[in-house]
Design goal:
- A hairpin with a 5-residue loop joins strand 3 and strand 4 (70-76).
- The protein is an alpha+beta fold.
- It has eight helices and nine strands.
- The strands form two sheets. Strands 1, 2, 3, 4, 5 and 6 form a six-stranded antiparallel sheet that branches. Strands 7-9-8 form a three-stranded antiparallel sheet.
- Helix content is 46%, strand content 24%.
- The longest helix is centred in the middle third of the chain and has 27 residues, at 123-149.
């Protein structure tokens, strides 16, 4: 079990080779592994969870407005890491994100104090943190650009194509409510737009499913 854990972190943590033997042993001792079922909340708001490393599963990161609307920021897949769930580690960054298991997940967690101790002692860890935060904030800025500058039909088409790519199928088991939560809009807006897409022959709607029937037309809306 320890050997498996070591092999995984070696692949995920680019700074691993820059740690000395004592630091490596310290990290392996402090790592914990937890599992979440699909739909469970992994991290919420200002909690300082630590560095999350996804062994298996799929995680959705989202923000929540005062009125309760959600909008998806980015997703994490096998081998991905996230430090934005550790606001206490990063000075001058206040970023209240929520993490939800979109599929059953197995996750390794490096506690925030452990990561901070390593970061303070080793420049390679600090560089890893900076690169990771920059990559995630780039994802966030892309989403914000979509919200501000893109029409809803374009955002919806892009979302459906992205989901099909993630799932590896054009038959998506997803509700209108779930799509609305991801896009930060009302279910009625999504239903109306999907009905239009269906009338145009781009999708077929069934209970709890959206089937992509004309990718070429959908891609037109994303250009």
């Amino acid at each position: 079990m320890l050997a498996e854990k070591k092999e995984f972190v070696e692949e995920v943590l680019s700074f691993w080779d820059a740690l000395d033997k004592n630091q490596k042993n310290f990290v392996l001792e402090k790592l914990s592994e937890r599992s979440w079922k699909k739909g469970q909340i992994i991290h919420s708001g200002e909690d300082c969870t630590g560095l999350l490393m996804v062994k298996s599963g799929q995680i959705r990161s989202f923000i929540l407005s005062e009125s309760g609307k959600e909008i998806t920021l980015f997703r994490l897949f096998d081998g991905d890491a996230c430090i934005l769930s550790s606001s206490c580690v990063m000075r001058n960054i206040t970023f209240d994100i929520h993490l939800e298991a979109e599929k059953d997940c197995d996750i390794l967690i490096m506690p925030a104090p452990v990561f901070k101790q390593l970061s303070d002692a080793n420049p390679a860890v600090k560089d890893f943190q900076t690169e990771l935060v920059s990559a995630r904030l780039s994802d966030v800025m892309w989403v914000m650009e979509q919200v501000v500058f893109m029409s809803m039909d374009r955002r919806l088409a892009d979302f459906l194509l992205e989901q099909a790519s993630i799932e590896g199928t054009d038959e998506l088991s997803i509700t209108h409510e779930t799509i609305a939560r991801n896009l930060g809009t009302a279910r009625e807006v999504v239903t109306r737009m999907l009905k239009y897409f269906q009338d145009e022959g781009m999708v077929t709607l069934k209970r709890g499913k959206v089937i992509l029937t004309n990718r070429k037309k959908l891609m037109y809306f994303t250009q």
